[in-house]
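PROTOCOL LOG
Step 1. Enter all chains and additional molecules of the complex.
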Amino acid sequence: MGTERPPTGHDVELAALAAAGDRRAFGELVRRHGSAVRGLLRRLGADPATADDVAQDAFLVGFEQIADYRGEGAFAGWIKRIAARLYLRKVKREARLVLTEAPEEQAPVGSDGPAATADRLDLDEALKHLSKAERLCVSLCYGADWSHAEAAEALNIPLGTVKSHVKRGLDKLRARMAAPSGGVSNDSARRESHG
Amino acid sequence: MADLDFETQLSRLYGQAPAFPDADLFTQQVTDKLDRGWALRRALIGATGVVAGVAAAGQLISARFSDEFSQMSHEGAVQLDKLTQRYDQLFTLGGSETLWVGAALVALALAFAVTRLVDEV
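Step 2. Run joint prediction.
Step 3. Record the structure below.
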């Protein structure tokens, strides 16, 4: 049955269909980007059940606000920003978010055994060695594509604190993932200019 | 990874969605919630339309009643026979008010049917 086939096309086209009330088109967007949103929420520090709940809520909110998405950026980025905002609201509401300037739970860096070498490129593994604040700030800025200023405002902490968390987090990730130390990238410059 | 800037690489890694074995289940759960929300909204719109239709019909009929009762008080019992005749007229198909009320209810029912039809299509 042709009518049972899921809609195809570019995300922008599907979003336009969804804005006209086509829930199957939105379902296809969920199918395409559900894992990305769930993954981001886990990388932000949510446990799997919470991540899935928030991801579902994000898509429901996304459907309500789909008319606001006009295709200026990637749909994945748009829905991830919604998900990140919902997650932050949730952790703030539950008073579980305590971001301090001082480093927390410092994990040993650069002491990999042979087994860990295989995981050098595993972002999720490396993220486990960051403090909650570092993980959150790095994931917001690089996973949800927030600027430092946006993260500071959403987290209700000073901009300098966000930059500190990001810098420490990046240092740890770089060491964990054996990246070459380099200069300031375009991404970094862009975030600095936003901040 | 040596030739790529670390932050660019990091953004790329963040962009790679992990594979979840229950991805289809997740999609199904979201679409089910969307469908439930849509069905609830449709029922609410329909119920609101029916309530509005009933209220409008009630207003029309009560306006008719108050009009007739005020006439009664003014004209007295002498006009009672005439009044009875007018009520008879109200509840016959030829009464203009009845026709308007009927038309309004039919329009509401049609609107409800069209919204359901559009949704199904």
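Step 4. Note key features.
The domain at 1-97 of chain A is CATH 1.10.1740.10 (Rna Polymerase Sigma Factor; Chain: A).
Chain A touches chain B at residues 21, 23-24, 26-27, 30-31, 33-36, 38-40, 42-43, 52, 55-56, 59-60, 63, 76, 121, 123-124, 138-139, 142-143, 145, 170, 173-174, 177-182, 185-188 (CB under 8 Å).
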